[in-house]
Specification:
about 50% helix; 8 strands; binds dihydroflavine-adenine dinucleotide; alpha/beta
Amino acid sequence: MLGPVILAASRSDKMRRFISAAPGTKQVVDRFIAGESVDQVVPVIQDAAAKGLEVTLDVVGEDITTPEQAAAARDAYLELIGRLKELGLGARAEMSVKLSMFGQSLPSPTTALNGEPSGPAPEFPGGHELALANVRPVVEAAAAIGTTVTLDAEDHTTLDSMFAIHEELRKDFPQTGCVIQSYLFRTEADARRLAAAGSRVRLVKGAYKEPASVAYQSKPEIDKAYVRILKTLMLGEGYPMIGSHDPRLIAIGQELARQAGRKLDEYEFQMLYGIRSEEHVRLAAEGHRMRVYTAYGTDWYGYFMRRLAEKPANLLFFGRSVLTK
Ligand code: FDA
């Protein structure tokens, strides 16, 4: 019940200001966000490497409002890749990006200020072209240091554009990954299309508030769809990335990989920084490739609220922390 309310609050500017300023917020945010700057995240990557873990790095931010902010997002990733190169950490760290932060969420440049179309309707609405132009140099720079980028999945209205950008990037950088969400009805078909040689696909349950017209609403249905889709990915020719903390799905993932005859380096597990950390280490110790999605930066509000919505018990911890400050 609380999850959808928290997700609605994640889009509210008023709540953003209130929560960001509340005393005690930082203590809870720190559980999920690995730092505010590249300097703060580097020791986290080094610590993960010492434990045999890989990382995928997310410079938090989304729903930007100007092209300058989109360019700044691109530059933040380029700075990060520069540091990984200097430190020789390229092999351990890949990047995760949200295209909304690269300009996808901006209005279409063919829409005039009065809202009337000023040219032919674009194939994809919004800042699709701008997002592609901003993400390409990041993917290029990542490839130059031997690593790659995965395109996160945001709300369902953005996905046709995300998949088109993914396909475009894969022409030059076939290792570029993307995320699919088991709560969406469309995902089984997407998985069949994506389970092809060389593709890297992270399967997650999905973290946004989606209507019943496009998405399963109950946990059993979302979990069952997850298993069906994971089967497709495991039996396909791509590289499945199992993004979940759910112990049942992790066990099923191991079994499906075994049944599909996959070796340990032919799939991987992924979990979020700050969630079930002991499980990260346990799976790595068993010989699995385990990648920790490590978010950092100052624009943490949307990311943080989705983590609260996933486990409303986090809200109690948050409330207690605010009240005791
Ligand atoms: P589930 O929610 O059933 O949780 C299983 C168990 O994990 C819980 O019982 C609890 O113990 C623990 N847990 C899960 N979430 C927790 C939390 N926030 N706090 C504390 N404990 C928690 N989504 C999306 O829409 N687009 C994306 O691109 C991504 N990317 C992504 C990358 C990676 C690596 C992961 C692991 C997840 C995502 N997600 C995502 C988020 C995903 O859609 C989903 O919301 C969360 O992973 C929670 O679902 P679980 O599969 O963990 O199961």
